[in-house]
Amino acid sequence: MTRAEMKKVVVVEKIIGGHMTNDEGAAALGLTKRQIIRLKQKYNQGGARALIHKNRGRKPAHALKDEIKERVAERYTQIYHGSNNCHFTELLEEHEAIRLSASSVRRILLGKGIKQAKQRRRSKAHQPRSRKAQAGMLWQNHTAGYGNGIGEY
């Protein structure tokens, strides 16, 4: 049980025991009075286990199937190794009839411990200047644009 569920159980037990009213319990849990009445009914029918969320431990309905994940990882390692995630996504849709987003493909491959063939590199902020043949050959001039260049600006 999570802390929130434990708190629900404690508050509902206090309400049923007569130590707390429905309004006080609603304020303590941040629920409405009607929701507290529903929680009491659930608790009376099934005990503390009835207050636990019913989807706990289940796989989400919209989750990708394990077979698809395995197929994607297998295709990348055997056939399409070296392509980036976006290109691999296009290849899967075109040749394998598997339609996924590039981020899903990336998540699947990283989950299997497969890294992309070529990592992204951050572009440099400025193009480096080519070096002069000798030190001191670089022409530097004053470019203030006003004044006479003797320190008066």
Automatic annotation (TrEMBL):
Superkingdom of origin: Bacteria
Pfam families per record: HTH_29
Stretches for region Disordered: 113-134
SUPFAM superfamilies listed in its UniProt record: Homeodomain-like (SSF46689)
Biased composition (Basic residues): 115-132
Alphabetized InterPro entries for the sequence: Homeodomain-like_sf (IPR009057)
Protein name (record): Transposase
Species: Paenibacillus abyssi
High-level lineage: Bacteria, Bacillati, Bacillota, Bacilli, Bacillales
